[in-house]
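User: Reviewer 2 asked us to show a designed sequence for the structure in our supplementary figure. I'm pasting the structure tokens here. Could you produce the per-position amino acids so we can include them in the response letter?
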């Protein structure tokens, strides 16, 4: 469906993609980060095909494939521009936290970061002082400044500081309901 607005027609569909499966991973400043695949079982193919979409200008960019395939991945999207600008003039980053065994405690977080400035992925491996289990359900990360917050198991949140390249485990008060479902999005 198209809506007429102050910036023109807004295409809120993803029908322009010739893919069987498209998930919106997360929004940032009016842009959408999407995961797309021609495979019905795309989650088992390694979470490798990302697309940045501007629904205002109807532009999209397919990103190069990341370094490593993970069956389970937590993703964040950071855009430092306005969706009224063409995609070529917008700076953005895609950050992937790869987990080999997501429900098992670990101290190592593998990070892949895509930068639109360099049009490349960079890889890093970070150690946490506390063991964590990252929640890799299809929920967008919460980004505040240069810090990305991903939900963890057992009432925890994992904070990744992009600028300092550090990872910290934050314990939340125990609640009757799964806390990350309610606290991270608010």
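Assistant: Here is a per-position design you can include in the supplement:
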């Amino acid at each position: 469906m198209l809506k007429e607005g102050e910036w023109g027609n807004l295409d809120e569909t993803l029908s322009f993609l010739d893919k069987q499966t498209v998930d919106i991973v997360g929004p940032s400043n009016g842009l959408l980060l999407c995961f797309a695949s021609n495979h019905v079982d795309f989650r088992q193919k390694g979470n490798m095909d990302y697309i940045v979409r501007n629904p205002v200008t109807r532009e999209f960019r397919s990103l190069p494939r990341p370094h490593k395939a993970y069956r389970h991945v937590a993703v964040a999207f950071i855009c430092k521009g306005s969706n009224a600008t063409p995609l070529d003039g917008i700076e953005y980053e895609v950050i992937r936290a790869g987990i080999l065994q997501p429900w098992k405690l670990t101290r190592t977080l593998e990070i892949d970061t895509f930068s639109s400035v360099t049009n490349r992925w960079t890889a890093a491996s970070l150690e946490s002082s506390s063991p964590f289990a990252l929640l890799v359900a299809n929920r967008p990360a919460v980004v505040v400044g240069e810090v990305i917050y991903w939900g963890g198991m057992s009432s925890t949140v994992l904070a990744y500081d992009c600028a300092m390249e550090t990872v910290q485990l934050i314990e939340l008060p125990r609640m009757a309901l799964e806390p990350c479902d309610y606290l991270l999005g608010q």
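For the response letter, you might also mention the following. Residues 21 and 37 are 5 Å apart (CA to CA). The radius of gyration is 17 Å.
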